[in-house]
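Record 1 of the preview.
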Amino acid sequence: MKRRPERYGRFFGFCFFILFSAAGYPRGEKERDMNPFDDKRFSDRPRDGVYCVGNGMIAAYIKNGEIVQLFGPCYSAPSVFSMSPEEKDLAFRSYRREGAVIWRTDISDAGGQAVGSIVDYCAAGRPVFIRRLRLSRPLEFRFELPLGGMMNAFSDAGGDILSERQSVLIDIPVGSRVFGENYTDAELYARILFPKGAEVSGEHIIIPAGDSELIFAAGEDVSPARPSFISCMEESDLAAAADPDKMYDDCVGYWEERFSYIRPLPDMVREAAHDTAAALLSQISVQGGALAGSFYHLAYGRDMYGVIRGLIALGLYDQAKSCIDFFVRQFREKGSVPNAGGMGMRCSHCHENDDCEQTGYYLLELTDLYSACGDAGFIREREDYIKYLFDAQENRLYRGMLPFNGDETYIAGGLIPRDCIDHGSMEATALYVTGAGRILDAAEKLGILGGDYISARRAAVSEAERMFASNFMSDDGSKLYANAPSRLSGAVMDRYRHGVCLGCGRMRYLALTPDMTYLCGECRTSKKIPAGSVRYSLSCASLMLGFIGSEAVAADMIVNAALDGYAARGSDGNAVGYESGLWLYALTRYGCADKALLESIFGEVMRLRESRGGAGVWVEYYISGEASPSCCPYRPWESAINMCALIAYAESREKEDAGN
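->
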């Protein structure tokens, strides 16, 4: 299946460079004559942990000089190359260049003697990754090709340019696994050009002393006239022939232009904001979808909401619009929106109740953007999408409640058992009530949707809002529950669906049982599993209401949840990576008289950023204040939420100081 050209449409920020260098990689006179090893703009603060070097088309996850993953020409492609140093006693210190997604790693031996440096970056606006090396002595690496490759294929076709290099041509067949049950839908090619003078034997490579470069180029499959193989060969030939310093100059300019749009921020959070911008921008694809971290090569609805909030907080409105439009296009192409969508691939990750929870986030992000930049035309042009989001959620409403999504937050994370999946979800319902109410207010102001449609939608929203307390609060109003088993009493359920079987735990097609649960064909004949009946109270669920500014509950309940959660935190237990940010955001937004407490939480969020393994941002889970070694690193969702909290607190502090 051939991709249509629009599947590789650049997001707004990429247009600048494409107009500038559509003809390829220019050679000759350079504007700055910059060598990456002499560039003085790298931070003097080393970063430990996995980080991403990506430009929306091609990406690498890197740690301690090791290329952990390398993939392209789209973000929903499998990793095809990894590369790690063979020497075990080397020390690595990594630094990000200010105003750019460019990283330098300095290497030293066990005695502290410098071995050399590596600079990793992507060519500006091209599906090409470059690793520049400056070594004082030869260094051996081990590399792996999960999909195999053809060594030295076509290595003589480029004349002198390629005959001095050993290379690998990688064929990524149709049906290659991306994630879970998601597979590539087109044949893709990638090519690795090893440094000149490198000795390659089996899966080992010895890179010589001096300056050298490794080039990884991938081919976009955008038309029959330029299929992936042709694109890959042309991109790698161009990169091999280009002046490497000019390519570096172009990359610096490419990123400096993007970072220039970050709005002015208080000094106390500026460095954290730029680190977060690097994490977000490097993981946003040219289609607008964002990786959820190195584990997940798909764009997830919930995670995208966090990314969009972070971009808005940073002032990067065009990138936020591109992220919103990723799912708008999914809807217009498919008539619905999956839980997670492929970026450059037509794969998607579908779960139970996919029309709940993230659909509420999608309504919210439209109004968040409108409130921030006032782009009325952007909202008006997406009226069909807004109607879909309303219809999808109203079809699942029962007794003023929406169920849980099967692959987001609490069910997937095991905080609430899967046998509660069709209970009322406090968070999904609050997202709907809040997002729907705001978009209806905007629709009336902008003259869209129509009066009758708005009136009917307001009636449904008002009913859910009116019943919210009785559905999700304790009788005395002191506790907020994350789930409501009462939704199962009389709710109309689908007879069949695709999801996780409660009997065997596998993703299968399922059938509804008399016990109001879903089992696969095998388990349905041998197992009886009733729906859960326990009610759960989760601090993070209550705090999310504060993050979205919901009025479904009183502000003092959100503040108390933040205070109670912070007071009850354990010093040695597991914690989700965004919980501290939610505490700080809620207490800043709704007010906290204890300024010392706010300062303490602010410090905690910043310490987590600086903790080992975070690479300057935040990860999925923490254990005793350090990044969990088994969790997903360099996470956009956690990083964006925490950054929103830091900015809100810092600007609140500035305002208070100015008033004193």
